[in-house]
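note to self: dont lose this again. the chain is below, predicted strucutre after it. 204 aa total, dont forget to put it in the shared folder this time
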Amino acid sequence: MDVQRLGVVPYEQARTMMRQLQQERIHDRIPDTLLLLEHPEVVTVGPRARKDGLLPPPDYPVEPVDRGGGLTWHGPGQLVCYPIVKWGARPGEASVADIINTIEGWVIEALAVFGIQGNRDERMQGVWVDGRKICSIGLSFLRWTSRHGFTVNLNTPPGRVEGVAGCGLTADTTTSLAQLGHHVDRETFEHALLEVVEQHMSPA
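---
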C-alpha cells in the first residue's frame, strides 16, 4: 500500500485528489493508497443530512459531500484517513458492512497499543471509547474501489467536534481522545495504525 502523509490539505483539494486517485486505482495504474492528512475546520454534509435539513451551528464552515452519512466535523487535532482501495481480494470484504467492520477493527487495534479500549456501538458505525464516539467512517464506492474514509479525533479544539450533531447523533456524543483523558500524539498513533493496516491488507 502506498501511504501518503500530506499534512494540512483544504477539503476541496482533497476531494479532487480522491476522485483522481480512485479512477487511477480502478484502472490499476496505482496500488492501493492511503492518504493521511488534516483539514482546516469544515463540516461535511452528506446526503442523509441534506435530506433531513440538518446543518451545524452557524459559525462552522460547510461543504457538501457524496459519501454516506450525515454531518462530519473536520479540523485541527483530527487524523483523516482516506483509503483509495480496491476491495474484494481478501476474506471479509464481501459487503460494505464488512469493509466498515474491517476499518473499525483497524482503529480498535491501534487504540489497544496505547491501552485504550475502543469498541463498536449499536448507535452508529465507527469506534467509541468510554461511551463517546471518537472515530467516524463514511465511504463512497465506484467499481468496488473506495474514496472518502475515516477520522480519528486525537486532540481537537475543546467544544468544536462536540458542537456538531453528527450522523444522527446528538451534540456532545462525538469527542476526542484528549477530552476523555487519553493523550496520544499524532505521529505515534499513525505509526500504530499503519502497522495494523499492513498486517490486514497483505494479499490473501
